[in-house]
Design brief:
With 369 residues, the protein is mainly β. It has helices spanning 2-10, 30-36, 38-43, 247-250, and strands at 15-20, 23-28, 69-71, 74-76, 95-97, 105-106, 119-121, 129-130, 143-145, 164-166, 188-190, 213-215, 234-236, 244-245, 258-260, 268-269, 282-284, 305-307, 335-337, 362-363.
């Protein structure tokens, strides 16, 4: 299981960008994911098979739905114009691919009997309704991808052992208290590109989660959400309307290692705010409206990447990035970007970047109006 979680969190998601009309979405390569989960497939094989027949096709088998592509434990029914989940699916499958169809509703018995299902991919359909009991008792389900649909709320009775849950680009504008109740193993929660404002998240909406990654890019946020799981190590808030960072915004997220705030409207970072995230490795503040380098960067011992390009920074001080005393910084910078700012790079003191590793670690460049 530890190896499995490592694969989930560290391997890049294999995907292809597909254009459907004016709509773009990332097609997930289910077979690549299945190959990455060899440990999972073996664990769920009750026959003790050594997996040598995993490449054989069963498209003409009676148990394979018409138009679908079937291999042992994997059924692919993407791009078939389906308006519903196929019936009589093989009971032993662990991966079900229903991407890019016209399914509008998930009914109560659509997945009945699929007790070994591990990954369910419903990306780019028209799903607006999921029966409250449709996902109940799917205790082996770990990956649930519902991105690019028309859902307006979080489905009820989500499987308790989910590791990844993706709702990118739906119509969710409110998250009720205890919406993710019981999902103690969830590590990835993607909610980006939903019309979700700060007021749309009820207090306690994320109760019980120990999530490591939360994505809320392209939403309607005007401030950093303050009630997300305190366990998060990565938070993506890009392409929102956040205009300032205050101390209370980050005080809950002491485990944060990567913070993405690019393409907002941030003009102000309150002194002491960044000190609340002492374990941070990467901060993305590019494409905002900052007039100076945020205070406190020098106190972040593990910070390696800080992106500040495309702001309004006109000057850089000698102690803006590095601590005063030698040896206080545990990790040297390998990336500081300051290009596309009105700062005169010839006025920057050479000692400003004394804690940067390598000559290519700093990008200044000329400013052009």
């Amino acid at each position: 299981m530890r190896l499995l979680l490592l694969i989930v969190l560290l391997l890049p998601l294999t995907a292809v960008v597909v254009v459907v009309g004016a709509k773009k979405y990332q097609r997930v390569d289910v077979m690549e994911i299945a190959r990455n989960y060899d440990v999972m497939v073996a664990d769920q094989d009750d026959d003790g098979d050594d997996g040598d027949d995993d490449d054989r096709h069963y498209d003409d088998d009676d148990s394979c739905p018409p138009g679908c592509h079937c291999t042992p434990r994997v059924v692919q029914c993407s791009d078939q114009g389906l308006i519903g989940v196929p019936g009589k699916l093989p009971a032993d499958i662990v991966m079900l691919d229903l991407q890019n169809n016209d399914i509008s509703e998930i009914k109560e018995d659509d997945f009945k009997g699929l007790e070994k299902l591990y990954g369910l991919f419903l990306i780019n359909n028209r799903i607006s309704k999921i029966h409250p009991r449709a996902l109940k008792n799917m205790n082996n389900l770990r990956l649930l991808y519902l991105s690019y649909n028309a859902l307006t709320q979080i489905p009820a009775d989500l499987p308790p052992n989910l590791v990844e849950l993706r709702f990118h680009e739906n119509r969710i504008n409110r998250i009720q208290k205890d919406a993710f109740k019981g999902l103690r193993k969830l590590h990835v929660l993607e909610l980006g590109a939903n019309p979700l404002a700060n007021g749309g998240m009820e207090l306690g909406a994320f109760n019980g989660l120990s999530t490591l990654y939360v994505g809320m890019s392209e939403s309607r946020l005007t401030a950093v959400p303050k009630d997300l799981p305190s366990s998060i190590t990565e938070l993506n808030l890009e392409y929102n309307k956040i205009f300032k960072i205050e101390v209370e915004d980050l005080i809950r997220y002491k485990n944060l290692q990567r913070l993405s705030l690019s393409f907002n409207q941030i003009r102000f970072v309150e002194n002491g705010s960044l000190a609340k995230i002492p374990n941070i490795r990467q901060i993305h503040l590019d494409n905002n409206a900052l007039k100076k380098v945020p205070a406190g960067l020098g106190s972040l011992r593990y910070l390696q990447v800080i992106f500040l390009h495309a702001n309004k920074i006109s000057s850089v001080g000698i102690n803006d990035f590095c601590p005063l005393r030698f040896g206080e910084k545990k990790n040297l910078y390998n990336g500081i970007s300051l290009f596309a700012n009105p700062v005169k790079y010839w006025d920057v003191h050479p000692g400003t970047f004394r804690c940067v590793g390598g000559r290519r670690g700093v990008q200044l460049g000329n400013f052009r109006k």
